[in-house]
Amino acid sequence: MVEAGKGKQLVLFLDYDGTLSPIVEDPDRAFMSDAMRTTVKEVATHFPTAIISGRSRDKVYEFVQLAELFYAGSHGMDIMGPAEGYHGVKVDGTRGMDEQGNEIVFFQPASEFLPMMNEVCKALEQRSKNIQGAKIEHNKYCVSMHFRRVKEENWQALAEEVQKVLKNYPKLFLTQGRKVLELRPSIAWDKGKAVEYLMKALGLGFSDDVLPVYIGDDQTDEDAFKVLNEKHNGYSILVSNVAKRTNASFSLRDPSEVMAFLQSLVKWKLRSSLEQNSS
To answer: What torsion do the CA atoms of 126, 128, 129, 133 make, to the nearest 10 degrees?
Structure first.
């Protein structure tokens, strides 16, 4: 990567759960460590950085709490970030202000689905109320049914209840991640599309002088891996401690290795800057 990155602008895309934070039983307690937050802040100081998660954008921001990043929640269907991209490029989208008075931009390709997702969330709550351990998470433009705490003998019953809800909403489709079922809008949008939008929004694109890096651990990250592979100039990195079928070209075992990798990128950038200044 060091060789490939010489003279190029590196751009970082990071998943959250399982990448920046460990996978936990209770999704509301998937906190990132202070050391990881410091590392991500340092990375964002040197490289354009975005977090792309299946979680709601507000929930991810609550976990990370770094205003200098782009955030893409609901698998990229709810994007927010600084209104000014790399080299002062004005980012496309709906403009607004954050609580600190900074100009920000929003991009929400599935906004028309919000009332429907509210209905779906209530329907799933009703259908799953008798299945112990089932937990619903409303991620704004997708609704997640977590079954990590559900007994294995009840998984099929829970999946059938989710399917019953899905039948009433033909404009939605079902995906599965790590012990989670998700209902999402049937639009041509995923984490890969979010990467393409952000690259364009930042004023970078997939040119030869840009090196995009995507790090993620889940099935939904595969769409982003594909995009980087198709562009032939990106690095797709799977976070997993077991071998599995993937579109990623490289791997890291767990969030601690992700943190070490990100720290090495910062050190590389600082060394490169020193060498340039000395010459």
So the answer is: -150
